[in-house]
Write a structure and sequence with these properties.
Elements: E1 5-6, E2 9-10, H1 11-35, H2 38-54, H3 63-84, H4 98-120, H5 123-134, H6 139-146, H7 150-170
Antiparallel strand pairs: 1-2
Helix pairs in contact: 1-2, 1-3, 1-4, 2-3, 3-4, 5-6, 5-7, 6-7
Amino acid sequence: MRRARRNGQSMDEVVVAEMYREHGEALLGFVRRASGDPDGAEDVVQETVLKVWQAAPEISGSLRGYLFRTARNVMIDNYRRASSRPRRSGSVPALESMPDAVERIDALLTRVLMEEALRRISREHRDVVLALHYNQLTVAQAAAALGIPAGTVKSRAFYALRELRSVLEDMGVEG
């Protein structure tokens, strides 16, 4: 059976290249921060893209969200393998505990996905969410900082959270 080709590349190669082009840099940054292993980050990204490419027909929601969750799972699997291997004393620093590693990776994944979701909502809604939830301003303080009435802050906050919830669902974030 012959596979479709475009510009001398198989469609599979085109799909993988497109995944790297659109999501590779962000994914690599996430893996580097989460793993603390800049040398192994590229391997994790390659394994992640391969797994996602193989699962392509089963992906629901955002491809980017799916890539990040898959990278999380690859890192945890790698951590489990590394922590189960015997080490010579003094050769490698002790790894953090498994629950601590998973918690750290999950916290970073949540932050990355939330940043992505915030980029997808309107600027007006994002400004209100950041003022109220990240900067922890009161409604009155947010209104003064944003130069809008307090009632507008409340209204935008309501619609912003609804929009944010919808974006997160589209990204495949369960909640």
